[in-house]
Specification:
Blueprint: H1 3-13, E1 17-22, E2 27-30, E3 35-40, H2 47-58, E4 69-72, E5 76-80, H3 89-104, E6 120-123, E7 126-129, H4 137-155, H5 161-172, H6 174-177, E8 185-187, E9 196-199, E10 207-210, E11 216-218, H7 220-229, H8 235-245, H9 256-271, H10 275-287
Antiparallel strand pairs: 1-2, 2-3, 3-5, 4-5, 6-7, 8-11, 9-10
């Protein structure tokens, strides 16, 4: 174990490092037996303050478990390690119920960052603005989520003029597509399947933990739509348990594509490829509803 790593963890956590356990990101055993993970956000300046604030905000009693923040500065985050497990149907249903609790904890406004979180936040390896919006969800979602990434994708040539125009039409009609008004929910914000860890944490069926948030105030259907975007084991069980605990508004299944437009545009900006085509196809389907 390098002296620098031990010194860094001791500085951030106030605890002694017993040994290095390896892995990526690296794991360490601290005094008392706690296993910690060290994450370096140096490649994405400002991402660690956003992530650490998000993890603290998402640690809602009765909500999905999240790693404990053991220490952090502007570039480094030390959090508790989540032991790996396997997807489990009972754990998936529990995730649905716990997500309903998390979302019901609420936020000050749509777009509001976690307390202490920066306005310049991160999703993946790109920035997004977290700033409270006084209007309804639909206006905020169009202005602060869809349109900035749409402009970037169009300007880079990852979206052709026709595809961009279709998504612009969705923004113009978003008030009629958005469904009933709801209060701001407390969102994970980047809830794709890779940010759900199935853990053998000692509970009877294991648990589904949430990691790497892009937390903010938003619409609860956005987290659920993100789970659906790249597939999640036992997703039907998650959604059924959620809907039983906190019934979703009529027509929510028709709105999944609307909520997926933002992550699809993020992926278009980050990776190009077929994500732009998928975003435009999703937009066309919404306009046919």
């Amino acid at each position: 174990m390098g002296h620098r790593s031990a010194t860094t963890l001791a500085r951030l956590t106030g605890r002694t490092v017993v040994r290095e356990l390896g892995g990526h990101p690296p794991r360490y055993e601290l005094d008392g037996g706690t296993v910690a993970v060290l994450k370096d956000g140096g490649a994405d300046p400002g991402s660690i303050p956003a992530e650490s604030a998000g993890l603290r905000w998402l640690a809602v009693p009765g909500g999905p478990p999240v790693p404990e923040v053991l220490g952090a500065d502007d570039t480094l985050l030390v959090s508790s390690h989540v032991p790996a497990g396997r997807p489990d149907a009972a754990a998936a249903e529990e995730l649905g119920r716990r997500l309903a609790v998390l979302h019901a904890a609420g936020a000050d406004a749509f777009g509001a960052p976690p307390p202490g979180g920066p306005a310049e936040a991160w999703i993946g390896h790109t920035t997004m603005h977290d700033r409270p919006h006084p209007g309804p969800w639909s206006a905020w979602f169009a202005a602060d989520r869809i349109e900035p990434f749409l402009r970037t994708a169009r300007d880079r040539g990852d979206l052709g003029p026709g595809d961009a125009a279709v998504i612009e039409e969705v923004c113009a009609r978003i008030d009629t597509l958005a469904g009933p008004d709801e209060p701001p929910a407390r969102l994970h914000g980047d809830l794709w399947s890779g940010n759900v860890l199935w853990s053998a944490d000692g509970s009877p069926h294991g648990s589904a933990w949430l990691i790497d948030p892009a937390a903010h105030g938003g619409h609860r259907e956005s987290d659920l739509a993100m789970l659906d975007l790249f597939g999640l084991p036992h997703l039907d069980g998650v959604l059924a348990a959620y809907d039983d605990a906190a019934p979703l508004a009529d027509g929510w299944r028709d709105r999944v594509g609307l909520h997926q437009l933002f992550p699809l545009l993020v992926h278009t900006v980050l990776f190009g490829g077929g994500y732009g085509a998928r975003a435009s196809t999703t937009a066309r389907a919404l306009l046919r509803l």
